[in-house]
Structure prediction request, 395 residues.
Amino acid sequence: MLSEKYAAMLSEKDIIFEVAGYGRQRAQEIGADQVFDFSLGNPSVPAPPSVNETIVRILKEQPPLQVHGYGPSFGIPSVREAVAQSLNRRFGMNYQMKHIFMAIGAAGALAHAFRAVTCPGDEIIAFAPYFPEYRPYTAGAGLTLKVVPADIDTFQINFAAFEEALNPKVTAVLVNSPNNPSGIVLSTPTVKRLAEILEAKQREYGHPIYLISDEPYREILFEGTDCPYTASLYPNTITCYSFSKSLSLPGERIGYLAVNPAAEQAEKIVEVCPQISRTIGQNGAATLIQLTVAQCIDETSNLKVYEANKDHLYQELIRDGYTCVEPGGSFYMFPRSLEPDDYAFCEKAKQLDLLFVPGSAFGCPGHFRIAYCVPEEKVIRALPRLKQLAELYGK
Ligand SMILES: Cc1ncc(COP(=O)(O)O)c(C=O)c1O
Prediction:
């Protein structure tokens, strides 16, 4: 019998893919260069040449049985060690191999983190605007996702609402910085205050509250942005990382989970991860790509392209009378829609072949997401249309 649970999910609207689907159809009608599709978060710059060179070298030099064989369930030891050393060098941490678990993208890392430090029925807090996949991810782990409304003037944390949401059933808090969809980076004072509140609540409740820090955009940071390493400010932090965006490898499905050595039961958390893999059928990241990212660990794609796109769009938006918090990183921005109904606004934008995702999809109505991981020339050609759209609203 077909699972009712998953069949019911088919009728849930996935607005991002709906918009992207429309974009593909429209491209067939009028040509791809005339469709300004800002819907999807797919990197628009290729992986650095060293990635392909490394893959070729590994294939030439290492025995096929090894490269294509099953790897250890925690990940390859030398790869885990390379990740630990890179984090220590860059963020002054003291990870060892035993604190790192190689995962299938950030999604895989999150799936393990949720299950490792919570029990079904617990509550987990996230902050609007948030990545919509957090809903199925947390539901799959049996958690209740509580969303703290946004502070729309800054997209830092709305602490009054956060403190109201906390209660003894909360065993984990989920942050994402640089953020999808706002592009905002949580500042050092914000993360310190979050840490203070969590420390106090842990003492009050008598159990740990883990901070699960989802950081796939950590390397996409713009000039002058202060981006603290979350785990350095709160011991009970589990960092979930992906090479999808930094090395433009989303299809290779590679990332990791790093447990702060100072976290309660740090080593046990990593130890249980292979058991979680067994239960969710996500056994082991692929060997070839693990070996590759270890050799390219401190490299990135040409991420500067995203900052140039951000500058063009942000300046145009402000000139045209939109309200937008300037992003500090990632390849997204989240302006206010020019009418309260963000769906109606995005429909109007669609008439100009500008494709955006309504903010409601991210738990924050009255906004729209621009994913500017598109070629710079396309961003430049889109600017007059943004102006035209503003003019439709009398700006
Ligand atoms: C905030 C956030 N978390 C997690 C993911 C999943 O990343 P991955 O594709 O590496 O699994 C994404 C992907 O877009 C994301 O934007």
About this structure: Residues 41, 105-107, 131, 176, 180, 214, 216, 242, 244, 250, 255 surround pyridoxal-5'-phosphate (CB under 6 Å). The mean pLDDT is 97. The two ends are 55 Å apart (CA to CA).
